[in-house]
Amino acid sequence: MNKLEIIKLTKTYKHKNANEDINLTLESGVYGLLGPNGAGKSTFMKQLATITNPSSGKILYNGKDIKTLDDKYRSMIGYLPQDFDAYKNFKAEEFLMYLAALKGLNKNEAKKRVEELLKLVGLYEVKNKLISKFSGGMKRRVGIAQALLNNPKILILDEPTAGLDPQERARFRNLLSNIGTETIVILSTHIISDIESVAKETIMIKDGKLLLKGTHKEILEDMKGKVYTIKTNDECEIGDIQRNYKVASINRGVENTQLRVISEVLPKYENTTQTEPRFEDVYMFYFELEDAREV
Ligand SMILES: Nc1ncnc2c1ncn2[C@@H]1O[C@H](COP(=O)(O)OP(=O)(O)OP(=O)(O)O)[C@@H](O)[C@H]1O
C-alpha cells in the first residue's frame, strides 16, 4: 500500500490561510498540482515534505500520522524545493555522492545509484563539471536527481520544469515514466502542458483551497459546452469580446479573426460555434490570464 491522506489541511501565515481545509487522498501515480502564483502549491508541498507543520489538520501515510512516523516517513520521500540550490563548488557527481551519504546510502550503493541518476537526467557526460558552470536547466536536473537518490515512495517536485528548455521538458516527461509505478509523484507547475501528458490526475488549487481533482477526461468532460470559436472581422467587436469574455487565443487569419472564448453562456455574436475543449482551456476557465495569446 502507498497512500497519503490529507485531512482538513490548513496552514496559516499571520492572518492569511495559505492552505485552507484541503482534503485529498493520493495513491501511486503522477499528480499534477496546478494553480496560479500564490495559490498555495509550495505551502502544500512543504507540509507533505515535513519542511513546515500544518496549523491544523493532518497527513496520514498508510493510515499513520506522518508526525509520528517522523524519520521513517522522511526516509521515504524525495523533495525538490522550488528554490533548490546545489552547492556550486561541487561537481555534479561529487554533490550527489555527498547527498547520498547524508541520506544513509553506503558507498557502493551510492556510486551505482548516482551513476544511474546522472544517466537518467542526462548529466553523466558532465558529471565532473562544476555545478557553478551549469545552466539553470542543468542545475534543475541535479535537483531532480537528488530527489530520486533514495528511491522515494513519495516524490514531491516543486516546479521541476522551471527553467528547462523544450528538449529538457521532454526528457523530464520521459524520466517520469521511468519512475516506478509504485511511487506517489506530486509535481507543481503553472504550465498546463507539463502535466497534460504525464499526470494521471490534476489537482487545482486557488487561494489556498482545493478547487478540483480529477482525470483529464473528467476535467475536460466538465468543460464541454464552455468553449466557443467566434469569427469576425470587426475590430470593435473583437475589443468588445475581449472586454466581456475570457479569450484563450486570437488567431488573425487572412479571411477573418478567430477568437477562442471560454464562457458558461453562449456568447451573443453572429458567427459563434461551440468547440471541443482542450486541456489548456481549463486553466483559463478556472484562473484568469492577463492577456489573450496571439497565435
Ligand atoms: N513563510 C511565509 N510567510 C508568510 N507568508 C507566506 C509564506 N510562505 C508563503 N506565504 C504566502 O502564502 C501564500 C501561498 O504561497 P505559496 O508559495 O504556497 O504559493 P504558490 O502557489 O507556491 O505560488 P508560486 O507559484 O508563486 O510559487 C502566498 O500568499 C504567500 O505570500
Give an account of the 3D structure.
- The protein is α/β, with parallel strands linked by helices.
- It has two domains: 3-220, Rossmann fold (3-Layer(aba) Sandwich), CATH 3.40.50; 223-294, no CATH class.
- The protein has helices at residues 41-48, 66-69, 71-74, 92-102, 107-120, 136-148, 166-178, 192-196, 216-223, 235-244, 279-286; strands at residues 3-13, 16-27, 29-34, 56-61, 64-65, 77-80, 154-158, 184-189, 201-206, 209-214, 227-232, 246-252, 257-262, 272-274, 293-294.
- It has a six-stranded mixed sheet, sandwiched between helices. A five-stranded mixed sheet has the order 14-11-13-12-15. It has a four-stranded antiparallel sheet with strand order 2-1-4-5.
- Helix 4 (92-102) packs across helix 5, helix 5 crosses helix 6 (136-148) and helix 9 (216-223) crosses helix 11.
- The chain is globular and about 70 Å long.
- The termini are far apart.
- The model is unreliable at 290-295 (pLDDT under 50).
- It binds adenosine-5'-triphosphate.
- Adenosine-5'-triphosphate (ATP) is lined by residues 13, 18, 35, 37-43, 82, 190.
- Adenosine-5'-triphosphate is lined by residues 13, 18, 35, 37-43, 82, 190.
Main sheet attributes: strand count, strand direction, barrel closure: 6 strands, mixed
Number of helices: 11
Shape: globular
Q: Give the proportion of residues in helices.
A: 25-40%
Rg over CA atoms:
22 Å
Assigned CATH superfamily of the largest domain: P-loop containing nucleotide triphosphate hydrolases
Kindly report the average pLDDT value.
91
Number of strands: 15
Q: In the CATH hierarchy, what is the architecture of the largest domain at level 2?
A: 3-Layer(aba) Sandwich
Distance between the termini: 46 Å
Q: Unreliable runs, pLDDT <50, ≥5 residues?
A: 290-295
GO molecular function, one term: ATP binding
Keywords: ATP-binding, Nucleotide-binding, Transport
Pfam families: ABC_tran
Protein name: ABC transporter ATP-binding protein
